[in-house]
Design a protein that fits this description.
Blueprint lengths: L1 H10 L2 H22 L6 H16 L3 H7 L1 H12 L2 H6 L1 H5 L2 H25 L4 H7 L6 H11 L3 H25 L5 H23 L1 H37 L8 H6 L1
Length: 258
């Protein structure tokens, strides 16, 4: 009986799931250093290992989330710490400021617009469009925007994480394929669409690319917060108005008969 009680306590203990999460991430780092394979991303490996562990042990996600709240809290200071490599590259940033801002604004508009258009093309509704639109922002920003605009916050988090993983796995190879080799441009592109997960990949590959990726992640989040409400007000409301059946105008005879 004591063994069962001990196991039940350990199964929901914060110590166990903190250890599993950190160990899974370290396993991902080890696989990346040994294989150099694009799929060997620490975040992706950690998600797979933790998901399998939670399912096998039948632990509710709410218990896992509560147990790992310390890691969630540390994401804030970790994001702020991205300013350190950016400060080290400040001299290279000054001459790149105007093209960078222009590219990030255009990129945010394309990201939000393409998300809405894909949902519409596949037959989705306005709720799913509001959920998909902020996918390129960081996960907390995507959740907050989707919740405020009437989307589905939980699904917005999934979209943001998928965008981050896809960018980290395939982004650098895709950029090299189209002959984009400038680390500043690579960092801006990955940070703008893959936020923190992509930035972690860039920091591992190149310090300069990682610095610009961190800056792009932050500025894209700000731009998305400004652009998504505009799209929701103009595009989605406009579609709703066109889809709403209008009343047939009455003729004068109909009006007089009444």
């Amino acid at each position: 009986m004591r063994v069962e009680e001990t196991w039940d306590w350990l199964r929901t203990s914060p110590l166990l799931w903190l250890f599993v999460t950190v160990a899974a991430y370290e396993l991902g780092r080890w696989l990346r250093s040994r294989t150099q394979h694009p799929l060997a991303q620490p975040t992706l490996v950690a998600i797979v290992v933790c998901s399998i562990s939670i399912e096998l042990l039948r632990v509710p996600y709410a218990d896992y989330y509560s147990a790992t709240s310390l890691i969630t809290f540390l994401l804030g200071p970790a994001t702020v710490a991205l300013a350190v490599p950016l400060h080290r590259q400040y001299r290279r940033l000054k001459d790149f400021l105007l093209p960078m801002l222009t590219g990030l604004i255009v990129g945010a508009v394309v990201s939000v617009g393409s998300g809405i258009l894909v949902v519409k093309w596949l037959g989705g509704g306005d709720e799913l469009s509001r959920t998909m639109a902020p996918k390129a922002a960081t996960t907390p920003v995507s959740i907050a925007l989707a919740d405020r605009l009437g989307g589905i916050p939980e699904l917005a988090a999934v979209f943001a994480i998928i965008a981050g993983i896809l960018g980290a796995v395939a982004g650098p190879s895709a950029l090299r394929l189209i002959r984009i080799h400038d680390p500043r441009t690579q960092g801006l592109a990955i940070g703008a669409v893959s936020h923190g997960i992509g930035t972690a990949r860039m920091l591992h590959d190149d310090a300069l690319a990682g610095a610009f990726s961190g800056l792009a992640m932050c500025l894209t989040a700000v731009a998305t917060c400004l652009i998504v409400p505009l799209f929701a007000a103009v595009v989605l409301q406009g579609n709703r108005g066109r889809q709403r059946p209008g009343r047939r105008p009455r003729s004068k005879q109909e009006g007089n008969s009444r």
